[in-house]
UniProtKB/TrEMBL annotation:
<dbReference type="InterPro" id="IPR025249">
    <property type="entry name" value="TF_NusA_KH_1st"/>
</dbReference>
<comment type="function">
    <text>Participates in both transcription termination and antitermination.</text>
</comment>
<dbReference type="InterPro" id="IPR058582">
    <property type="entry name" value="KH_NusA_2nd"/>
</dbReference>
<dbReference type="InterPro" id="IPR009019">
    <property type="entry name" value="KH_sf_prok-type"/>
</dbReference>
<dbReference type="InterPro" id="IPR013735">
    <property type="entry name" value="TF_NusA_N"/>
</dbReference>
<dbReference type="InterPro" id="IPR030842">
    <property type="entry name" value="TF_NusA_bacterial"/>
</dbReference>
<keyword id="KW-0963">Cytoplasm</keyword>
<keyword id="KW-0806">Transcription termination</keyword>
<dbReference type="InterPro" id="IPR012340">
    <property type="entry name" value="NA-bd_OB-fold"/>
</dbReference>
<keyword id="KW-0694">RNA-binding</keyword>
<feature type="domain" description="K Homology">
    <location>
        <begin position="307"/>
        <end position="384"/>
    </location>
</feature>
<keyword id="KW-0804">Transcription</keyword>
<dbReference type="InterPro" id="IPR004087">
    <property type="entry name" value="KH_dom"/>
</dbReference>
<keyword id="KW-0805">Transcription regulation</keyword>
<protein>
    <recommendedName>
        <fullName>Transcription termination/antitermination protein NusA</fullName>
    </recommendedName>
</protein>
<dbReference type="Pfam" id="PF13184">
    <property type="entry name" value="KH_NusA_1st"/>
</dbReference>
<keyword id="KW-0889">Transcription antitermination</keyword>
């Protein structure tokens, strides 16, 4: 039949995408009805019979026989003399069904049919992909590196679906080669036009949470609950865990003997330092645990303003703050409190903000980034260490030291 080539063009996609029979018939009928509307103005008096198994399709136009010279709508009515050319015994008032050949639609219409058919198949396929990945949002997914760009890595899964891993969703130490498998969570799925855009992330806290579910059976089984995850991707993370079974030590179960269970997670995240912390409703105890490995002397809470004043021995302060201020910042995010660190035995200290006449604001902000907000907290630091941890020049830090020392020598 004339339409076999057109049907075969559909079959090329059908075999690849595994479109079911009902959908196949629906798409074909929709495409042909659009063509009939363009040709005849309406399509409600046409029957379309699709046989996808044989690659066959028939179109029949139904019209009513009227007397010669009384045809008002040539699409729905046929004159008696024309009807008798089809069957000689037709009478006025009877229904006539006549097959419409593809050539009757015209060459341009047939080309448009094929293009519309391909477009409908792609649209159907993209809708299914969107639905499939929308259900996978927040879940771990594996895909292979297909193309490496400056701002993103393009991945392909086993079914050829394209997944984007943007630069800002990659761990700073990530380095991938073409053909390498990558794990992350499906962060978002959006339809842009008719094409789904699938975004993967390796920096989201949810990725670490899902890794715990995969690697630790008690978390997967629900015996251990992950209450909250906070991260500085590739640097440090804190995970609060809890168990409703007193016989289970949630921290011990997550870490394993000599860190055996958590080791694979740490390796996946580029040696990210992961603190696993026992969750508690006791805010003071939770803050104490969150600031580990520092040992706290005492805590004063201002629950109304979600602030905590923490007193530590001088040698514990750097542990509480951590490299780059990561430890104290993550502890604050985990507990929901803004944590201020004070040194035990230091009665007199001055906030750095009091020195704005002598020290520029941007310099004070550099110290604040690493958790140093008071004069003595800066003076207790090593010069070379401050040069390494901040974006300040050695001479600038020396000048700050001198300003602060003058304050206490007066």
């Amino acid at each position: 039949m004339e339409n076999i080539a057109l049907i075969e063009s559909f079959s090329e996609f059908k075999d690849d995408k595994l479109i079911d029979r009902v959908t196949l018939m629906s798409i074909l009928e929709d495409v042909f009805r659009n063509a009939l509307k363009k040709k005849y103005g309406e399509d409600d008096n046409f029957d379309i019979i699709v046989n996808p198994d044989k690659g066959d399709l028939e179109i029949w136009r139904n019209r009513v026989v009227v007397a010669d010279g009384e045809v008002e709508d040539s699409n729905k009515e046929i004159s008696l003399s024309s009807a008798r050319k089809i069957e000689p015994d037709f009478e006025v008032g009877e229904d006539v069904s006549e097959e419409v050949k593809l050539k009757d639609l015209g060459r341009r219409a047939i080309l448009a049919l094929r293009q519309n058919l391909i477009s409908k198949i792609h649209e159907h396929d993209n809708t299914n992909i969107y639905k499939q990945f929308k259900e996978l949002e927040g879940e771990i997914y594996n895909a292979e590196v297909h193309h490496i760009r400056h701002r993103a890595i393009i991945l392909l899964d086993d079914e050829g679906n394209e997944i984007v891993l943007p630069k800002d969703r990659q761990i700073p130490s990530d380095f991938f080669r073409k053909g390498e498998n990558v794990r992350g969570i499906i962060e978002s799925v959006e339809l842009k036009g008719n094409k789904p855009t699938i975004i993967m992330s390796r920096t989201a806290p949810g990725f670490l949470e899902k890794l715990f579910e995969q690697e630790i059976p008690e978390v997967f089984d629900g015996l251990i609950t992950i209450k909250k995850v906070v991260r500085v991707p590739g640097e440090k993370a804190k995970v609060a865990v809890d168990s409703y079974d007193d016989r289970i030590d949630p921290v011990g179960a997550c870490v394993g003997m000599k860190g055996s269970r958590i080791h694979s997670i740490v390796r996946e995240l580029g040696n990210e330092n992961i603190d696993v912390i026992n969750y508690t409703n006791n805010d003071q105890l939770f803050i104490t645990r969150a600031l580990s490995p520092a040992k706290i002397t005492s805590i004063k809470l201002d629950e109304e303003n979600n602030r905590a004043e923490v007193i530590l021995r001088p040698e514990e302060v750097s542990k509480a703050i951590g490299r780059g201020g990561h430890n104290i910042r993550l502890a604050g995010q985990l507990t929901g409190f803004e944590i201020d660190v004070f040194r035990e035995g230091v009665e007199e200290d001055v906030e750095l903000s009091e020195f704005t006449d002598e020290i520029e604001d941007w310099v004070i902000k550099e110290f604040s980034k690493i958790g140093l907000d008071t004069a003595k907290s800066v003076l207790e630091q090593d010069l070379e260490d401050l040069v390494r941890r901040t974006d300040l020049e050695e001479e600038t830090i020396r000048q700050v030291f001198q300003v602060l020392r003058d304050e206490f020598e007066e």
